[in-house]
Amino acid sequence: MSVADVKKSAQERMTKSLETLRADLAKVRTGRAHTGILDHVTVDYYGNPTPINQVANLTLVDARTIGVQPFEKKMAAAIEKAIRDADLGLNPAAQGDVIRVPTPPLTEERRKEMVKLVKSEAEDAKIAVRNIRRDANESLKKLVKDKAISEDDERRAIDDVQKVTDKFIADVDKMVAEKEKEVLTV
């Protein structure tokens, strides 16, 4: 393994951590409805847990309502139950073939809880990025110990890894600030 491999691996893993944070933040509810809220809901489809978007068409009816159109009519009750049991604070209502899922407006207290959740997700992402930095630095130290690189090369590489880490931490902070603003906007 070379210095370039260590840096590339660290950068790829940090990018994955950032993508995971982005996906986790998408699940956090804001005042508006969006179909991403239901992404992790699974429906019992003939005995198999299946993501809701594979058994129904998700659309936005208006700013506060999600429309769920099951591909099979007999799945409507199972989908409605899955949404209710997902612990999202949503109360779906069947209207003919379509299940309407109104998203209630968030109270100030609930918004503050959401901000705490967002900050917690951010801290987890920062910890993941720092752990990746630690692993990269240990790999570099091992290369020096194995006499594959010089100590000067190691110092330069550690500085480069730190710069990449700082960039990703700044990206995490930026994403969290945007999500906080979105959550707190009434």
UniProtKB/TrEMBL annotation:
Give the matching Gene3D superfamilies.
Answer: 3.30.1360.40, Ribosome-recycling factor
GO CC, sorted alphabetically, is: cytosol
Keywords assigned: Cytoplasm, Protein biosynthesis
Q: Where is the Ribosome recycling factor domain?
A: 22-184
Instruction: Provide the GO MF annotations for this entry.
Output: ribosomal large subunit binding
Q: Which domain of life is it from?
A: Bacteria
A single GO BP: cytoplasmic translational termination
- Localization per record: Cytoplasm
What InterPro entries does UniProt report for this protein, alphabetically?
Ribosome_recyc_fac, Ribosome_recyc_fac_dom, RRF_sf
**What is the protein's known function?**
Responsible for the release of ribosomes from messenger RNA at the termination of protein biosynthesis. May increase the efficiency of translation by recycling ribosomes from one round of translation to another.
* Family as reported in the entry's similarity comment: Belongs to the RRF family.
Q: What is this protein called?
A: Ribosome-recycling factor
State the organism named in the record.
Duganella fentianensis
